[in-house]
Amino acid sequence: MTVSQKYIAPDVAHITVAGDKRQIAEKLKQFGPVTIYDIYGNEQKDEPAPSVPANFTPEDVVRKHIASTGGEAKWKEVKDMTMVMTTEMQGMQINIQTIRKAPNKLSLDVNAMGQSFQKVVFDGTSGYMTMQGQRKNMEEAEIKEYASEASMIRDLNYLDGKHTISLRGVEKVIDNAAYQIEIKSADGDIVNEYYDLKSGFKVKSEQVENTPQGPITQTTYYMDYKDGPLGLKFPNMIKQTVGPQTMEMKLKSIQINTNVKRRSI
């Protein structure tokens, strides 16, 4: 305390906080002017948000995203999907292969230079994870997480009548305005999805993960949507932040309906 009183001058101190501006901005105003920056360090101006059209529902927002990426009928034609994304870590290229098989099976493999570092397998009801040869069966919370991740497009699940969805307003994501939709599952888990006003594409997801170190906000940005197999559109860049860590992933390849066998999952 003595050291901090000697070397920290409150009148010239700068406070830097990472997180959800809706939760922290008002609390910080007591210390002075608050400046908000996006993930690229660009200052975000506090401009009035566009108004929500009358009679426009959160279901309309979700349906627009589904339509913008190809449509419900096309998504329901997907029986299996194999996606490979790449990222860099300490100068080494990392491959992330995700295989999904309808209705709710998933396999995820993280590898580099021909060696697998991490694998996740979910068979629809249970699953396991391996890391550096150590195997661990999924716990209940992990089973729920991967049951959602196994969906070809989880936004379709939001319209199943088992989720409570609400339109929270309009927020700026990067440079564009987006509808903020709060999704609450039957178990009470909450995720906030952001959909671009003009294109309808989902541009951001945000949820709080409970960890041994306490709750941590996980934010995922979806960018650069392009045409893919079956006339569907996919984000070719995904940027994910978990606490202080950021990972940028690029889409390398995607295959649909290649008759993935059960043993691949």
Architecture blueprint of SSEs:
Blueprint: H1 2-7, H2 21-28, E1 36-37, E2 43-44, H3 58-68, H4 72-76, E3 80-89, E4 92-101, E5 105-112, E6 115-122, E7 127-131, E8 134-137, H5 140-149, E9 164-173, E10 176-184, E11 190-196, E12 202-211, E13 214-227, E14 233-242, E15 245-256
Antiparallel strand pairs: 1-2, 3-4, 3-15, 4-5, 5-6, 6-7, 7-8, 9-10, 10-11, 11-12, 12-13, 13-14, 14-15
The oligomeric state is single chain
What share of residues is helical? 10-25%
Mean pLDDT across residues: 87
**Which structural class is indicated by helix and strand composition?**
alpha+beta
Low-confidence stretches are: none
Q: Would you give the CATH topology of the domain at 58-71 and 152-251?
A: outer membrane lipoprotein receptor (LolB), chain A
- CATH architecture heading of the domain at 58-71 and 152-251: Clam
Radius of gyration: 21 Å
Q: In CATH, what is the homologous superfamily of the domain at 58-71 and 152-251?
A: Lipoprotein localisation LolA/LolB/LppX
Shape assignment: globular
